[in-house]
Amino acid sequence: MDQKGIAPLSIVAIVAVVAVVAGVGIYVATRGDGSTGTVGIDLENFREMARNETWANIRNQLFVIDNKLVFWIVEGQRPDAGYGYFLFGNNTENIICSRTDSIGGPQEICNDNNYRDLFHTMINNLNASDFGLGPTHQVIEVYWR
């Protein structure tokens, strides 16, 4: 409370911004207390990957999950592969889980079983704004086409 007995407003917000550092997009999280922290996700490489996906004519989106993961949804009209869902760590080389369509049917790989349930929740709730993760998780869209 201030001297007049009025409590100052407390605004808690989570905001995502991209800082360009040496030409590389680095994901920066702003916490409710105003402090920031670089998460170390190279968003520019993820965006380039998404931009270069030519068959994604239905859906092509990237999301940062909990300031540490990237979820990529790619969907298009191809007879042998209509979709791909990918959960990455902090770079495009670190694929944690994926589910892709193929001529032989859906193919799923999880390289880290600690994320399997989270990944399944997300792909089973693709049309929910939070992918079914609930209020304890942060989901921020960072690319769409």
Strand order of the largest sheet: 8-7-6-5-4-9
Low-confidence stretches: 1-38
The major sheet is characterized as: 6 strands, antiparallel
Cα-to-Cα separation, first versus last residue: 47 Å
Number of helices: 2
User: Helicity level, as a percent range?
Assistant: 10-25%
Mean pLDDT: 79
Share in β-strands: 35-45%
User: How does the overall form come out from the CA principal axes?
Assistant: globular
Number of domains: 1
Cα gyration radius (Å): 18 Å
Order of helices and strands: EEEHEEEEEHE
Oligomeric state: single chain
Total number of β-strand segments?
9
Structural class: mainly beta
Structure in words:
The protein is mainly beta. It has one domain (43-144). 12% of the residues lie in helices and 39% in strands. It is built from two helices and nine strands. The chain has a six-stranded antiparallel sheet with strand order 8-7-6-5-4-9, sandwiched between helices. The longest helix has 9 residues, at 43-51. The chain is globular and about 35 Å long.
Please give the structural blueprint.
Elements: E1 15-21, E2 24-30, E3 36-42, H1 43-51, E4 59-65, E5 69-75, E6 83-88, E7 95-100, E8 107-110, H2 116-123, E9 139-144
Antiparallel strand pairs: 1-2, 2-3, 4-5, 4-9, 5-6, 6-7, 7-8
Brief summary:
With 145 residues, the chain is mainly beta. It contains two helices and nine strands, in the order βββαβββββαβ.
